Amino acid sequence: MNLSRLMVLGILARGPRHGHQIRRDAEITNVGEWGGVSVGALYRELHRMEEEGLVEPLRNEQVGKRPARTIYQITDEGFRELHILWEQAIAEIHPNPDPLGMALLFAGAGEPEDIARLLRARRQKLAIMLEQLTADRERLDARGLLSASNRAVMRRGELHLRAEIAWHAEFDDILTSPEADVKPKRCSGADPSN
Fold first, then answer.
1. Same domain, yes or no, for 82 and 103?
2. Is this structure's pTM higher than 0.90?
3. For position 111, what pLDDT does the model report?
4. 20 to 30 A Cα–Cα from 182, which one of 7, 44, 72, 127?
5. Looking at beta carbons, which pairs linking 54-57 to residues 24 or more positions away fall under 8 Å?
6. Residue 189's pLDDT is what?
7. Is 115 exposed, middle or buried (CB count within 10 Å of its CB: 0-12, 13-18, 19+)?
8. Same domain flag for 136 and 62
């Protein structure tokens, strides 16, 4: 799923915008962090969608000495694409790749103390992310910039982070228990050299 495309079409469905306004919306909502959108690629995506007929230039606008900016609007085909992406994003489950799970299940490269140390550092980073997301939500809400659905989406991100932090605490208990058993078991069976 192309989340950048979903975001750009969704913004343009609310009204015409130029690329800088779209990028600014992405930066304000910090969608690169939680939404998997590459903010740096938004202009490229906008031009690609223009080539595909999903958006079209409406007019050029120049404010003061700033460079002229093209104002884009969504086309009928763009609305159809947005509806398809919207349905897919809501209806389908999109599990992310899980490097942490892969490392813990298959790598077997660390002692329990090393794993615990690395996971504690990771948990601290998650706590900082949670603090920042909560502060962003509260700041944007206080300025009246969040709709109820925007607030709910940010709250969902907070809950995900809280769940991840809680899991880290549980796993830390496992790692620090006297019978910590975190190394992968060797598979029995045929000799792999044959």
1. no
2. no
3. 73
4. 127
5. 54/5, 54/9, 54/78, 54/81, 55/8, 55/9, 55/12
6. 53
7. buried
8. no
11 found inside a domain:
yes
Question: Are both 81 and 115 inside the same structural domain?
Answer: no
Does 69 share its domain with 53? yes
Copy the structure tokens of residue 31: 């969608």
For residues 16 and 71, the answer to whether their CB atoms sit within 8 Å is yes
Residue type, 28: I
List the structure tokens of 158: 């907070």
Return the pLDDT at 56: 95
119 belongs to a structural domain: yes
Name the nearest CA neighbour of 87 among 23, 174, 8, 10.
Answer: 10
The predicted pLDDT at position 183 comes to: 56
Given a cut of 50, the residues of the chain with pLDDT beneath it are: 194
> What is the tally of structural domains in the chain?
2
